[in-house]
Here is the input.
Amino acid sequence: MIKFCFFFSCGNSSAVEHDLAKVGVASSNLVSRSILFFLFLTISVFAKSVTLLPHYCVDENLELDAKFFGVNQNFKIITLPKSRASYSVPSLHVKNPFVEKNYKVIDSSNGIITFERFCNLAGKKDKIIEAILDKFANEYPCINIHSLNIKPTTPLPFDFKSYKLLTISLKNNNFRKRKGSFRAIFKTPTSEKNIYFKFTIDANIKAFKAKHKLFNDKILSRNDYEKITIKIDKLPSKIITCKVPNNLMTKNYISANSILTMNKFEYKKDILRGTDIRAYIRDGMLVIATHATVLEDGNIGDILKVKTDNGKLLRAKLISKYKAIILE
Here is the structure.
């Protein structure tokens, strides 16, 4: 029997198989180590990366370390000045300490990073919002507020935490805006200080619209209008909200589906022009009653022009809806 021997010397076949097994194990170990090294390298690359944002909120701690930016290691990055509530720096000031530690830095700040203290208004945000809500509720008792956000228009003072809210001031034209501004008055350790804020509100108001045409001098009744809901920034001037006042009378024609506003109405007077009344004239100890016609609208207690049956124009004080005293 002829044996062909390649690469290995001819000999015991079991020895050859053993040698081949060793080679296989070695190769397998080498591949496994390569895969583990690759995985370790990949994990290390991902673990050693950080993304820088354009804006950060800072609480009391002004010594910012690497963990503040979301990494596991702890080393100093930047110290913020105590006297500044808002502080902007070139992103390189933050990037370089990470680069020195072999971090891959993804800079999404466009070159400038701003650190802002009191992003939650030092715990005063809820109280300020509550004060604004009270202002809107006083203006519109039927308001339905879905959201309200506020933000100072300028950086807050570095000692803002010691401030105490006294009151807020909101101008009338801000009650019909989705975005507006207000002034907050604070008690400081030494005096009082005004700080200005802007707000964004999402709210609805209950209002009313005409169900049909309303003509001039029409006394408004419950059957003439219906309730609607309007966004706060869609409210017209002098709109009637929440409840329609009693004794309203149209000043001019109102088309169907028109929103009811006070400039379209006036309050119905106790007595209207053309009403017949009894007018009393004093003549010494005598009181003479005569028939007269009122020439203008008025309320009880008003002095109105009247015309007697004999055509005299006189001034009379209305003492009831049907009686007046002629004045000398």
